[in-house]
Write a structure and sequence with these properties.
The structure holds two protein chains of two kinds.
Chain A lengths: L3 E4 L2 E4 L5 E7 L5 E7 L5 E7 L6 E2 L6 E5 L5 E5 L8 E8 L7 E2 L3 E5 L1
Chain B lengths: L2 E3 L4 E5 L4 E3 L2 E3 L4 E8 L5 E7 L5 E3 L5 E5 L4 E6 L8 E9 L8 E2 L3 E6 L1
Parallel strand pairs in B: 2-12
Antiparallel strand pairs in B: 1-4, 3-9, 5-6, 5-10, 7-8, 8-9, 10-11, 10-12
Classes of the chains: A mainly beta, B mainly beta.
Amino acid sequence: NAGVTQTPKFQVLKTGQSMTLQCAQDMNHNSMYWYRQDPGMGLRLIYYSASEGTTDKGEVPNGYNVSRLNKREFSLRLESAAPSQTSVYFCATNRDSNNEAFFGQGTRLTVV
Amino acid sequence: AQSVAQPEDQVNVAEGNPLTVKCTYSVSGNPYLFWYVQYPNRGLQFLLKYITGDNLVKGSYGFEAEFNKSQTSFHLKKPSALVSDSALYFCAVRDKNTGFQKLVFGTGTRLLVSP
């Protein structure tokens, strides 16, 4: 039982390159989230999916897209990476909106 | 609008002493409050939450937090700190009438427990 699995763990991109961050959960949860963590700023929500087939913007969605591929998987795509997207990205999931979330181990992304 | 403040960037405490990590919040209605802990190179782990009921909430690893509505605070406490408690702690809040996607995180407080 892995919980929430993110891949890759580390990535270095050049400005303008694209990449997809993968997230998979085996907890049978409905809701999934993507956050970014920056020093001194806590966690900020990028996108979320309340249930399979739905996605919505969070606080900082610009420059990102998401896909809720099925109930287990929720991917985050950077179409044209910028240095401002250097951050640690976390995927999280919960059974529903009223419950605490479980987080993956994070992806440390550097854009040069 | 919802907001949460963790006024201390770092808290230092000696092993065996009690610890407190402070959190104050602002919501328009009734709050749902959470504490999470982050160990190095790991994701956030849930510690405890206040939804309703008793103001003193007990959570994982011997931590507890007290909800104080008049002071709009939700401080995290532990009677006796361990070196292994050293980590980054996040307080989070949302209004009861909003969904988890509206959860607002504080900037975090680094707890350093010395032997």
